[in-house]
Amino acid sequence: MQSTTSNTKHNHIRSHLPLPSNTNTTSTAETKIDTLYHETLGTGPPLLLIPGAHSTGLIYTNLAQQLSRYFRVTLYDLRGFARSFSSSSVRTTLQTHIDDAKTLIHHITASPTPDPKKPNKKRYRSIHIFSSSSSASIALSLLKNPDIHIKNLILHEPVLPTLLPRPYLTHIQTQLQLHVFSPARPCMAEINRHLVSMTQTREGWEDFKRTDAYKAIERFPGDYSLGFFGDVLPDVLEWEVDVGMVREWMGGEGHGGGGKLALGCTGAGYDSLLDS
């Protein structure tokens, strides 16, 4: 697949990567191609920032600029959200976004020189990955792919509900059912009001609203990320964590000793739950 570059300036590249269709229908010349909008900044080892429920790489703009001094940072919008396009009315699932992340990683890590032992097979460089919130299940799923060589994976405030104590998980599921999944006309403002109370302090939310990233996201339609909560979040809530694999990676034994995983959590961290 060839990425369509729309703008390049000071090692800041904005592109649209063509994606396989999300349906089984035969495409025509008039059918628009699904694309994954992504930006790449800086030089150095590749680093991918995977967005959570905001569904857009805009959430990482400031972080990407800081890290671009040390890495070749790629941020992107999930398929069908913000600046990425989906031609299908079929809902995107968690698996859709896992597959898209694999496609993007292969695109940005492909080596220009083939494997001398297997000249017909592409070689891929190792990559660092940063994931936040509800994209944790996407990132952890990538650990199981033998064609993706992850050097380090950082999970920031990961949403991994199946690791939580059953009473707390039940409370979250009940609140989401009432305010996210059940309303006939769900509203992002109402969803945010309930989710913020479960995931962060009011002060933290107000601080975020003063950032450039929030101002940029505000330019999208108010319900641009609504599909994530209706289509993808139910999958996230039921996604089972491979605890053994996570422990292996946290011990620095991923990929047979070449990969590491770190958790960044506030409050009751998942690291204690993994030991229970």
UniProtKB/TrEMBL annotation:
AB hydrolase-1 domain boundaries: 47-182
Cleaved signal peptide residues: none
A matching Pfam family: Abhydrolase_6
Region of interest called Disordered, as start-end residue ranges on this chain: 1-27
Name this polypeptide is given: AB hydrolase-1 domain-containing protein
Provenance organism: Aspergillus ibericus CBS 121593
